[in-house]
Amino acid sequence: MAHFRTGMSARMRASDRPDEEHIDDGHSVGSGRLGRRGFLAGLSALVVSGCVATPRPEAPKVVEPPKPRRVVPPMYYAMPNERFPIPEVDVSHLEERWWRKDVDYPTSERKGTLIVDTPNRYLYHVTGPNRATRYGIGVGRDGFSWAGRAIMAYRREWPRWTPPNEMVARRPELEPYSIANGGMPPGLRNPLGARSHYIHLNGKDTLYRIHGTPEPWSIGKAVSSGCIRLINQDVIHLHDNVRDGSPIVVIPDPKMEHLLVT
């Protein structure tokens, strides 16, 4: 009995001693495994050393401010008192370089002469010595077909459009507006716009026209149809300041010489 108690006491004293393989001093003796405090200490070191990637903050998105809306100059305001009221020009579709402007213009042509600078898409009305009113123009296929010197024979307000028979032959859908059928009535949809100027050479119609258009986006460009087009506000201004019988000079566009009729 005494021996049994002695053995039990010895075993109990032995169990009261900490097991060397479970000492939590940062390392496990004999196993090589990291202890809890060692693992946490190592993780802290990684974070401090930058080995653990941290998400970078996103760069703020740059929002561009809206472009300022162009202010419509008074010369391009609506014209409600016309026979067919003309709306204000949408100048967002008309670059400022094409706006009507009085400019210095060295020339030997006399006052009142019209000069159509086809290559550069401008029309000049000479108003005095080396001065002119400049208009931006769009040039249609027929506008490239003739060049030289002639006379602006007469003008018409809100003209009828009568396509020549040759055009009707090419485009049968224009038959309702043929010469025989009296042409297209005037209006905002009429291809000649609010005014038209008719060019004659040696007393004969050249079929060359300076006319209006409601399409500001076509100014400064070569367009599919028509002759020399100005926005309606500009062609009205020209109509009011030019005289019947005024000389006209049309400068050809070298790129379009294949269209010239000699």
Question: Can you tell me the residue ranges where pLDDT is under 50 for at least 5 consecutive residues?
Answer: 1-32, 46-53
Mean pLDDT: 84
Q: Which strand order does the major sheet show?
A: 1-4-3-2-10-6-7-8-9-5
Structural class: alpha+beta
- Counting H and I runs of at least 4 residues, what is the number of helices? 4
Along the chain, the helix and strand elements come as HHEEEEEEHEEEHE
Measured distance between first and last alpha carbons: 143 Å
- Strand content is 15-25%
Biggest sheet record: 10 strands, mixed
Q: What Rg do the Cα atoms give?
A: 44 Å
Number of strands: 10
Helix percent band: 10-25%
Spatial shape? globular
Keyword list:
disordered N terminus, single chain, 10-stranded mixed sheet, 262 residues, alpha+beta, 4 helices
Describe the structure.
This protein has about 260 residues and is of the alpha+beta class. About 15% of the residues lie in helices and about 25% in strands. The chain has four helices and ten strands. The chain is globular and about 80 Å long. The N terminus is likely disordered.
